[in-house]
Amino acid sequence: MSGTTIPPLALSVEHLGVTLAGRDGPLPVLEDVSFGVPAGRTLALIGESGCGKSMAALALMGLLPEGLRCDTGAIRLLGEDLAVAPPARLRALRGSTLSMIFQEPMTALNPVFTVGEQIAETLRLHQGLDAAAARAGALEMLRKVEIPAAAQRLDAYPHQLSGGMRQRVMIAIALACRPRLLIADEPTTALDVTVQAQIFDLLKTLQRETGTAILLISHDLHAVADIADEVAVLYAGTCVETGPASRVLAAPEHPYTRALLACSPRLRLGAAAAGPAPDLLEVPGMVPPLGQRGPGCRFAPRCELAGADCNHPPPLRPAGAGRAAACWRVGDTTLEAVA
Amino acid sequence: MNDVLLDVTNLTVRFPAGRAGPFGPRRHVHAVDGVSFQVRRASTFGIVGQSGSGKSTVALALMRLVGISGGDVTLDGMPLSALRGDALRRARRDFQMVFQDPYASLDPRRRAGALIREPLDLLEIGSPAEREAEVLRLLSQVGLPAEAGRLFPHQFSGGQRQRLCIARALASRPRLVVCDEPVSALDVAVQAQILNLMRRLQRQLGLTYVFISHDLAVVQHLCDEVAVMYLGQVVEQAPTHRLFAAPRHPYTWSLIAAAASHGAAGQAMRRRHLTPGEPPSPIDPPPGCRFSVQCPHVTARCRTEAPHLRPAAEGHLAACHRMEELGVPDFGLAEVA
Predict the structure, then answer these.
(1) B284 versus A155: which is more confidently predicted?
(2) pLDDT recorded at residue A334
(3) Do A269 and B336 touch (CB under 8 A)?
(4) Positive or negative: CA dihedral A284, A288, A289, A291
(5) In the 3-class helix/strand/coil scheme, how is chain B assigned residue by residue?
(6) CA geometry: angle at B223 spanning B216 and A260, to 5°?
(7) Domains of chain A, each with CATH number or no CATH
(8) Residue A338 Cα distances to A44, A136, A278, A317, B16, angstroms
């Protein structure tokens, strides 16, 4: 499917820095994070908890919690810098040009309104539709997200729907105004595997229809491999590797990406299912908490390839076609030997 | 000595679900409906299925944390399902549980050492000095430093908290440990640490696990035998290597397809085997095969006559009328990189 012409970037994040106000001055949460999402494509932001991926999403939406601020860099949505946009402008953009699906469909919907009303609200606010037109629009969206008996479900309350159905309603709300960018923060983590596959299929189908750019946030690189075109791997607030999803997955460059892939068990089917499973690779330690990040490469304390030069932070350097990695060892032949 | 540690026969758990209308008949949610399985000593028995399939209710019933409506649970000849009151409380030293959420299952106001010692105190195992020594031994067994005993739960990361939960579960030296999604709330890197720890402890202590999970890859990694549950019933049960090499039930195919690899092979599997829609309500399950509502291979017989678990091969059971006819799907080409 990948054509030779790269569509224009719907979202471009440039050297984004987010800090948390602390007693001893600001603590860096995100540092010099850059990535771009072309129109109609999907970028997956990958990392463990505490790596800053959800903070990146909230910064894009202008929804950073109190104490956190975005103080360097630019967030360009169709050329407009959201980092400096006034609140009123952000409010107008959110839900129409830019929208978000949250992890927990149970808590993200309002329990006292019907799902029809919640979808219609977006249409009334952003497109100025009257009640009847908005209701018709809500029904159309419910059909688009493949909810069976959509006409009856329009008047259902969130508690009357299953988790998968609620996440479909969230998607309907998020896509009602045909946003140019959809941010999906772990949209399937709370759902069953069978439902997860259905939700990803649905997102792909709707993306083909609307040309929406999707920024998908996940902790599982394998899970998003099918839906993502590009990936950006975050570690402790910095971007450590970027590139086309299939190639990063097949041959990760950064030791952290490599470790993430090696430490999750993979399903073995058919003849490969025989024999006992080997022990999983363990990455010792954990993501350094805020304020305890070292001066050099953030991953160095857990990295088996770390050396003296890792005391200097490695920049994100090109590593092959469309790829980049922030590691002094990239291009080093010893890395292949470890693999 | 008998090879079987845990014997579950026809386990049934029903919850009242109010009446159908003000004067209607009482209704029940059939959370677990006639589940039978045996778990061998020092092995891991996995139960997979989607939410609502009743797998967690099986775990709670084994632990006697929900009422058992019918059937028998026997742990090494001891009839767990028949125990009451003090006898049940005393028997608990032999079967312990690790829960899904390590944040919610540790009292935030007690120190880690006290949390681990609590089962020993309650079951009156050892003298106070012996209990202190035991806490230190347990901490080191799960890979935590001795100083960790003085900290409060909020001072630990998610993975460390799950280690505390495991240490607490092991305190009374149980023979059976029931684990309900013990790694689902953890990040992948931490998940690997906990899975390796569980395997190491099993080898060292000869533990028997009942392992509940929705993650097929984790189940394959850890379990010796797996039961697949759908809407309160076991639809397929087999040794792990057989289940993933030659699954016989269409629901198992759907689960495997959903979890299969990325790329063209995985997509082809999903197109062929992933079932659309959602399971029916457990309040009024369909009369025939419960999977008939979603099954792509459904026939008229499936809608009226419930299939029973029957042998598909040595040690391999499946509940499907069309098992022979449908055969085994070709998963060979979809091997995961």
Answers:
(1) A155
(2) 53
(3) yes
(4) positive
(5) CCCEEEEEEEEEEEEEEEECCCCCCEEEEEEEEEEEEEEECCCEEEEECCCCCCHHHHHHHHCCCCCCCEEEEEECCEEHHHCCHHHHHHHHHHEEEECCCCCCCCCCCCCHHHHHHHHHHHCCCCCHHHHHHHHHHHHHHCCCCHHHHHCCHHHCCHHHHHHHHHHHHHCCCCCEEEEECCCCCCCHHHHHHHHHHHHHHHHHHCCEEEEECCCHHHHHHHCCEEEEEECCEEEEEEEHHHHHHCCCCHHHHHHHHHHCCCHHHHHHHHHHHCCCCCCCCCCCCCCCCHHHHCCCCCCHHHHHCCCCCEEEECCEEECCCCHHHHCCCCCHHHCCC
(6) 55
(7) 8-97+179-264+278-339 (3.40.50.300), 107-176 (no CATH)
(8) 26, 59, 17, 21, 57
Task: Provide the sign of the torsion angle of the four alpha carbons B148, B149, B150, B156, taken in this order.
Answer: positive
Identify the DSSP state of A41: -
Query: How distant is the Cα of B288 from the closest Cα of chain A, in angstroms?
Result: 23
Check B187 against A49: CB less than 8 A apart.
yes
The predicted-structure confidence for A221-266, as pLDDT tens digits, reads as follows 888 888 899 999 999 999 999 999 999 988 999 999 998 888 888 8
Annotate A147-179 with b (16+ C-beta within 10 A) or e (fewer).
beebeebbebebeebbbbbbbbbbbbbbbbbeb
Distance from CA of B153 to the nearest CA of A (A): 16
Residues A226, B274: C-beta atoms closer than 8 Å: no
* Beta-carbon count within 10 A of B295 CB: 19
Around A332, how many Cα atoms within 13 Å sit in the side-chain half-sphere? 16
Q: What confidence tens digit (pLDDT) does each residue in B162-202 have?
A: 999 999 999 999 999 999 999 988 888 888 999 999 999 99
User: Nearest CA to CA, how far is A223 from chain B (Å)?
Assistant: 8
* CA proximity to A174, closest of A130, A108, A218: A108
Distances (CA, A) of B86 to B89, B121, B169: 5, 15, 20
Q: Which residues are paired to B46 by β-bridges?
A: B211, B226
User: What pTM did the predictor assign?
Assistant: 0.85
Those residues whose C-beta lies under 8 Å from the C-beta of residue B209, and which sit 6 or more positions away, are: B43, B44, B45, B176, B177, B178, B179, B198, B202, B222
Spatial distance between the Cα atoms of B237 and A199, rounded to a whole number of angstroms: 28
d(CA A311, CA A297): 6
Flag whether pLDDT at B334 surpasses 90: no
Which residue in B211, B224, B278 has the most chain A C-beta atoms within 10 A of its own C-beta, making it the best mutation to test that interface? B278
Nearest 10 degrees: Cα torsion A302, A306, A311, A312: -110
Q: Domain locations in chain B?
A: 247-337
What are the start-end ranges of the H helices in A211-322? 221-224, 245-250, 255-262
User: What is the pairing mode between strands A27-38 and A181-185?
Assistant: unpaired
